[in-house]
Design goal:
Distance between the termini: 48 Å
Shape: globular
Largest sheet: 6 strands, parallel
Order of helices and strands: EHEHEHEHHHEHEHEEEEHEH
Strand order of the largest sheet: 1-11-8-7-5-6
CATH architecture of the largest domain: 3-Layer(aba) Sandwich
Number of domains: 2
Number of helices: 10
Bound molecules: guanine
């Protein structure tokens, strides 16, 4: 059994990116600049965005964090997005999700310049991804692909079961695992809240990617021997013994599932750190594309 160590691989990727930035600096080139907009005060979202900004510092990127109050209107947010679209110094930016309910998320994402959409959420990027064209791939699925690739996890001809059909993880993951190439060439089943007899499906899976947000959902009896388990869940559960008052729990009943799996991602330290590393990678790509255009 092999633990897919996202913490270590994400550090490797950040070191590779930091080396690139050093080269840019010594050539007198502009370094990549990532901006992030966060609307409201959700604790988890503030933590994630904070980690993204910190990661920028770590690799030598410039970063800008824009905090807007939870009462922000859609018009106010769109005005800020227009500013970032038009600001030549910004190479890429993200709008942290979820957004408050007075704001139409899909409309907001459609107003981001696709060439700066380093989350890969704009329909142009999502459509290109589905058509095997060059595009920004959403950071979490991109991070999972990178883990599978760096650990040489076999995916060709395997049955991959994705649990959860979110636009951020499940849906793109189902497309990417079925596409030609490595990682890919899998036969994919996308399961969701309306799926019947899910255990019958998961016990047939060679690879399970779970992105539900239900702590300890995937039990040992739901998987077959030697399955590959990718846990995208990051739920905060109350833990009075911890300093912060909570701990992060994945979708997988790790202590039992680990005994049957061939490869498995831990939580924390699996997919989570990869997401941030791949956002940096997308920002580096955005900078590079902009440099080639000028
Ligand atoms: N919320 C949860 N995951 C993500 C992500 O990858 N990007 C953004 N913008 N918001 C998120």
């Amino acid at each position: 059994m092999t633990i897919l160590d996202g913490k270590k691989i994400s550090e490797d990727i950040k070191n590779e990116i930091a080396d690139e930035v050093q080269k840019m600096k010594s050539n007198g080139e502009k370094v990549p600049h990532l901006a992030a907009i966060i609307v409201g005060n959700d604790g988890a979202s503030l933590t994630y965005v904070g980690s993204k900004v910190k990661a920028c510092e770590r690799v030598g990127f410039e970063s800008t964090l824009i905090k807007m109050p939870s009462t922000t209107s859609e018009t106010e947010l769109l005005k800020k997005i227009k500013e970032l679209n038009e600001n030549d110094d910004i190479d890429g930016f993200i709008v942290q999700l979820p957004l408050p309910k007075q704001i139409d998320t899909q409309h907001v994402l459609m107003c981001i310049d696709p060439s700066k959409d380093v989350d890969g959420f704009h329909p142009e990027n999502f459509g290109k991804m589905a058509l095997d064209m060059s595009s920004f791939i959403p950071a979490t699925p991109f991070g999972i692909l990178e883990l599978l690739e760096r650990y040489n996890v076999p995916t060709d001809g395997k049955h991959t079961v994705v649990i959860g059909r979110s636009h951020i993880v499940g849906r793109p993951m189902s497309i990417l695992m079925g596409r030609k190439g490595f990682p890919g060439n899998s036969t994919v089943t996308l399961t969701h809240s309306h799926t019947k007899n899910i255990n019958q499906i998961t016990t047939q899976a060679d690879i399970i990617i779970t992105a539900l947000g239900v702590p300890n959902y995937l039990k040992a009896e739901m998987i077959k021997d030697d399955a590959v388990i990718i846990d995208v869940g990051i739920t905060r559960v109350v833990d009075e013994n911890s300093e912060k008052g909570y701990r992060i729990t994945g979708d997988v009943d790790f202590d039992n599932v680990v005994k049957k799996a061939s490869f498995i991602t831990p939580v924390p330290g699996g997919v989570g750190p990869m997401t941030i590393a791949m956002l940096l990678k997308n920002t580096l790509l955005a900078r590079e594309q902009k440099r080639l255009k000028v």
